[in-house]
């Protein structure tokens, strides 16, 4: 009897299920039916809910209140509508690797991710294939942990060294940014997951980031701030783009039709979906009209949109267009494709990719008398608190990654078989323990990084000088989202300078060398202390393999090949935007005036003959390279020109060289920086005496400047100089070609006017 009852119940249940399925089958289904049919079957409320995403990792069914955690720790997800086959898309951060929780309730398993080098560090590799490889590994973690889009890469221009998020960004040069971002996107997306290129555009200031109005001329916008995005969009088609928090020339970027629809979609051909940054903008209707499809995350906007459709403030058709782009995006996602993820990416293999990238990202800034690589060094005296606490892998905020472990520089030395002075280790460890215990920070992990350096006595330095072969001083900095760095953070503190001075004096007197390792996320002062020491390695924040990579560089197992993707000024006040950063009025800024116009970074320093501590493109190697045989495909430019040059390793150890191509354009009515980067190439690992021919191609757009009056990219007629350099200053080969007639390369729409007066810098002010 029981058996019959059971059968009966099961029969009735199956029948109910079948009839629901049948009813559902009659409804259009995403992926099976045309998107327009699916939209036609959506209620207005469903449309409004779809364009307003959900914050965090949990989906709450509005009808039943039932909660489902998708991928713990994800920053957000999209609304799901099961009856129409609309699955959720899970959107985690971030630029240095996947950011999800490593711990899950009631689960002993750890869900670690790989902390790769920060974008600033990756940019120093100037190696697009390596960046693509990093992207592939990052994207694999996104896929295998069951997410759909990585909220990355972040490519705002490094306009000023104090921007708190510079570590998440690549460079001060838009070409380098665009090419590296395209490589990163292609790498991530090769896994069948998406990216969100961010923050579109001009999120170059963190102070009052959700309201600040960035006043930028059309030319500076087109040539610098938009250019990296333009290259990346055209060369990689990211699935999504994230609009920025800031206002641009009066309007929030997410509410700016000209930016999102006219420029991004119509001019550049962007096919994907645009989402806001988290809680960005203030007007849901304006966002929909601008073409910012997804509001991340939201709630009250659903009601606002429903009311707006009702009172005809917005046409439902506009909402349909936003919905269509979201649905189209959803059909590509792993969730929609029901990808069965493993929750077990190959973290060991990814650690190796992170290690390789870290090694190639570090920059040798100074190396007097061949201090490096180590010869006969066995015992090292490590100074600076950050020699003993975990190597700083990256900055704070949404760019953090929950990885398993980052060892300290001291541990990395010990693991490589060096003796680390126990006396110093003990003193520093006591200091670190006290700092952590007393820290009021929510995340004690960062307590040491943000704490002032430990003052050190002469006696302590002297105590071990005899027993050691060399002194290494670590100078560290950390920064993060939501605030900018202070000028005091740019300069070294008195304690830090004193440490460098004292250690150098005592070690030099004992005939021993001193090396500084910089575990920093952005540009700092170097000019006022660098003469004290023998060698400087800019180790950046190079992810969880950074400490090991640093030791490999110091001992010569890896020959440094990183070069600066941003200028290191002599003093902060030399920075062209120093007077206008973060903005006005001081204390509670409203507007940020980009008065330096097109003269950002080396474009300024070179044109205005301002000396720098280390120039853009600079970086030493343990081997010298010779450049020769520059050849142009033609002395006259038609639609393209090819340039070849040979680079040869003339030293005794293998190494890679980054070769840069700058153009000095003819002088015409429109002023131009004296030189601009228009190409770069990294050699393979060249053995001693080995050479390689590198090829660069220039098209008309690369020669063009943006003429605001004409709203066009124009390449002036005249003689163009090709400068092939080992840095922006160290030019090794020159040639020239002629453009016979001025070329109007591309007409654009006359949009994005500045909304307030700028006093833009001009060569005539010199
Ligand atoms: C950041 C974004 C990030 C988002 C989600 C925002 O505060 O600006 O870069 O992707 O949060 O975490």
Explain what the structure shows.
There is one protein chain. The chain is an alpha/beta fold and 766 residues long. It folds into 4 domains: 1-30; 34-330, TIM Barrel; 362-562, Glycoside hydrolase family 3 C-terminal domain (Rossmann fold); 622-765, Immunoglobulins (Immunoglobulin-like, Sandwich), CATH 2.60.40.10. Helix content is 30%, strand content 19%. It contains 22 helices and 31 strands. It has a 6-stranded mixed beta sheet, sandwiched between helices. It has a 4-stranded parallel beta sheet with strand order 6-7-9-12. Strands 11-10-8-20 form a 4-stranded mixed beta sheet, with no helix packed on it. Helix 5 (128-144) packs parallel to helix 6, helix 5 (128-144) runs antiparallel to helix 13 (347-361) and helix 13 packs across helix 20 (546-555). The longest helix has 25 residues, at 2-26. The model is unreliable at 1-22 (pLDDT under 50). The structure holds beta-D-glucopyranose. The site of beta-D-glucopyranose has 8 residues, from loops.
């Amino acid at each position: 009897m029981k058996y019959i009852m059971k059968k009966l119940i099961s029969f009735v249940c199956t029948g109910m299920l079948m009839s629901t399925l049948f009813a559902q089958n009659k409804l259009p289904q995403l992926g099976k039916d045309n998107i327009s049919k699916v939209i036609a079957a959506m209620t207005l409320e469903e449309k409004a809910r779809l364009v307003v995403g959900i914050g965090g990792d949990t989906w709450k069914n509005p009808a039943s209140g039932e909660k489902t955690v998708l991928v713990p720790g994800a920053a957000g997800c999209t609304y799901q509508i099961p009856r129409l086959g609309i699955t959720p898309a899970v959107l985690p951060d971030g630029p240095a690797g996947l950011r999800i929780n490593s711990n899950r309730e009631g689960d002993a398993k750890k869900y670690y991710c790989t902390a790769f080098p920060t974008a600033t560090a990756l940019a120093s590799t100037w190696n697009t294939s390596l960046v693509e490889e990093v992207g592939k590994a990052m994207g694999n973690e996104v896929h295998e942990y069951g997410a759909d889009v990585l909220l990355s890469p972040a490519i705002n221009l490094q306009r000023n060294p104090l921007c708190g998020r510079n570590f998440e960004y690549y460079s001060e040069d838009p070409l380098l940014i665009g090419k590296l971002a395209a490589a990163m996107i292609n790498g991530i997306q090769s896994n069948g997951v998406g990216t969100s290129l961010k923050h579109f555009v001009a999120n170059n200031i963190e102070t009052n980031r959700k309201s600040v109005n960035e006043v930028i001329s059309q030319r500076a916008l087109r040539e610098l701030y938009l250019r990296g995005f333009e290259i990346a969009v055209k060369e990689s088609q990211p699935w999504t783009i994230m609009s920025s928090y800031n206002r641009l020339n009066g309007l929030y970027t997410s509410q700016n039709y000209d930016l999102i629809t006219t420029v991004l979609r119509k001019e550049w051909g962007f096919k994907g979906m645009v989402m806001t940054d988290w809680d960005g903008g203030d007007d849901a209707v304006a966002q929909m009209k601008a073409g910012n499809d997804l509001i991340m995350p939201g709630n009250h906007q659903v009601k606002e949109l429903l009311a707006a459709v009702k009172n005809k403030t917005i046409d439902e058709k506009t909402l349909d267009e936003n919905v269509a782009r979201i649905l189209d995006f959803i059909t590509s996602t792993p969730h929609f494709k029901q990808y069965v993820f493993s929750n077990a990416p190959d973290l060991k293999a990814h650690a190796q990719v992170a290690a390789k990238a870290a090694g190639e990202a570090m920059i040798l800034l100074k190396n007097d008398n061949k201090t490096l690589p180590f010869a006969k060094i066995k015992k090292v005296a490590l100074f600076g608190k950050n020699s003993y606490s975990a190597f700083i892998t990256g900055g704070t905020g949404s760019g953090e990654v929950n990885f398993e472990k980052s060892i300290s520089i001291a541990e990395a030395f010990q693991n490589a078989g060096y003796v680390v002075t126990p006396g110093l280790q003990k003193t520093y460890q006591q200091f670190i323990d006290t700092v952590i215990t007393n820290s009021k920070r929510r995340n004690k992990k960062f307590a040491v990084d943000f704490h002032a350096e430990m003052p050190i006595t002469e006696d302590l330095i002297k105590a071990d000088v005899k027993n050691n072969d060399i002194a290494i001083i670590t100078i560290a900095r950390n920064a993060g989202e939501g605030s900018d760095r202070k000028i005091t953070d740019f300069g070294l503190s008195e304690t830090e300078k004193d440490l460098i001075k004292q250690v150098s004096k005592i070690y030099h007197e004992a005939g021993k060398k001193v090396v500084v390792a910089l575990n920093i996320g952005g540009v700092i002062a170097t000019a006022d202390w660098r003469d004290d020491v023998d060698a400087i390695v800019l180790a950046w924040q190079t992810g969880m393999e950074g400490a090991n990579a640093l030791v490999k560089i110091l001992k010569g197992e890896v020959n440094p090949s990183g070069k600066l993707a941003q200028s290191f000024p002599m003093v902060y006040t030399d920075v062209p935007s120093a007077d206008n950063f973060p903005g006005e009025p001081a204390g509670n800024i409203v507007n940020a005036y980009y008065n330096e116009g097109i003269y950002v970074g080396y474009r300024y320093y070179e044109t205005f003959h301002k000396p720098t501590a280390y120039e853009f493109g600079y970086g030493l190697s343990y081997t010298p390279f010779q450049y020769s045989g520059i050849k142009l495909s033609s002395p006259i430019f038609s639609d393209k020109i090819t340039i070849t040059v040979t680079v040869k390793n003339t030293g005794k150890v293998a190494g890679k060289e980054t070769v840069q191509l700058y153009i000095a354009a003819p002088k015409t009515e429109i002023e131009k920086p004296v030189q601009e980067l228009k190409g770069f190439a990294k050699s393979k690992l060249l053995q001693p005496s080995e050479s390689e021919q590198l090829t660069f191609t220039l098209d008309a757009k690369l020669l063009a400047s943006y003429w605001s009056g004409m709203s066009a990219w124009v390449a002036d007629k005249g003689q163009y100089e090709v400068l092939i350099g080992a840095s922006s200053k160290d030019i090794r080969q020159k040639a020239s070609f002629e453009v016979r007639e001025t070329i109007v390369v591309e007409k654009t729409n006359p949009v994005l006017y500045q909304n307030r007066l700028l006093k833009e810098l001009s060569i005539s002010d010199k």
